[in-house]
Amino acid sequence: MLPLSRRDIAARLADPARLAQLSATTFDDADPAQLDPARAVAAAVLVPIIWHDSGPGVLLTLRATRLSAHAGQVAFPGGRVEAGETAEAAALREAAEEVGLDPRLPLLRGTLPDHLTGTGYRITPVVGFLDPPLTLTPDPAEVQAIFELPLSVVLDPAAPRRQRREWRGRMREYWVWPHDQHLIWGATAAILVNLATLLRR
After folding, report:
1. β-sheet bridge partners, residue 166
2. What is the mean pLDDT of residues 23-28?
3. Confidence of residue 29 (pLDDT cuts 50, 70, 90)
């Protein structure tokens, strides 16, 4: 697949017909029948695409191991939407708090369909463009490391794979993205799959 330009990606994110072909996703351990989007807590994540000369990459974080929820897991910068905030404002605020990203820097280009989690959150992924060099300072209370997944991997149809294991008395399937150091799965992996589906069409 030929590399996508900024204009290509922005056009796909702004195309209602393309977005309509995607659907809201749910966390793999959740029973869709028990999820009520209207009662879910609003949250947002920033999906930052950094445009290096050598090729763009998607910024991800490794959550601190001492966190009470999802410790040590890979995530996008993000969190709960506060009263009076838009998803975009929440994503920028959380990215500033977690990795020290200046909220004036990302050029926001659109949102992906919401992701419903088994813990009752409705996450809106906000896609933004960034140009290096960037000075990022992770908050050690929340973020253990910052790294990138090359966009070329996201665009590779063979990259994500499904894994199965028994959890809470039933077999569970979930997406996993390849990385030589970190396990990318769960909500983050599902959001990346939706991004990949949109960009590959």
Report:
1. 171
2. 62
3. very low
pLDDT digits (tens, 9 = 90+) for 34-57: 556 677 899 999 999 999 999 999
Answer yes or no: is pLDDT of 89 > 70: yes
In contact, 85 and 122? CB cutoff 8 Å: no
Q: Angle at Cα 160 formed by Cα 132 and Cα 150, nearest 5°? A: 15
Show me where the domains of the chain are located.
Answer: 6-29+41-200
CATH architecture for residues 6-29+41-200: Alpha-Beta Complex (3.90)
Helices and strands in the chain: count of H runs, count of E runs: 5, 12
Q: How far is CA 84 from CA 13, 37, 81, 90, 115, in A?
A: 25, 19, 8, 10, 21
Contact 40/54 with Cβ under 8 angstroms?
A: no
